[in-house]
Amino acid sequence: MKKILLLCVFTVLAVSCGSLDQKSQTGLKGNWTISQVSYPGSDYIKVNSFNIADSKCFEGSSWKFVSNNNTGTIDISKPGCPSFSSPIVWTITKEGDFTLKITEGVKAKKVAQGYYLKMRNQTENSFQLVDRVDVGGNTVDVIYQFQKM
Q1: Which helix (H) or strand (E) holds 38?
Q2: For this UniProt entry, which residues form the secretion signal (predicted)?
Q3: Considering only CA atoms, which of 38, 47, 17, 15 is closest in space to residue 120?
Q4: Does some domain include residue 14?
Q5: N or C: which end of the chain has fewer CB within 10 A?
Q6: pLDDT tens digit sequence for 7-56
Q7: Total of domains in the chain
Q8: Cα separation of 46 and 140, whole Å?
């Protein structure tokens, strides 16, 4: 019985790892900053990003991505915004889906809430994460433009 259970666990792990985009994940390794937050097709709107702060507070935030274990950190220290620092866990699928858990020092498996964004336009020095949010009954894209530090 233990062998069957162990085989099932390894099978699930092998299948789930096969759907990750290792090249994209490796490309994120290092320190990044959000240079701009924009809302294409919309004038200024107010969005609370990741249940932390107004989306504009993320401009200038520092992000560290560690690709060999899909962990990292996020730091916000923009004047006029709440200071925030937390470990993160993240992945990128072959379909360009970026998953993010802000763990705040808790093991990722104990964090029930996560965020699903789309990854776009990845180069060696930049990439975008796109969040689709509901604003007044309309779905709006929030684009986070990352630049390598």
Answers
A1: strand 30-38
A2: 1-21
A3: 38
A4: no
A5: N
A6: 333 334 444 555 887 888 888 899 999 999 999 877 678 889 999 999 99
A7: 1
A8: 11
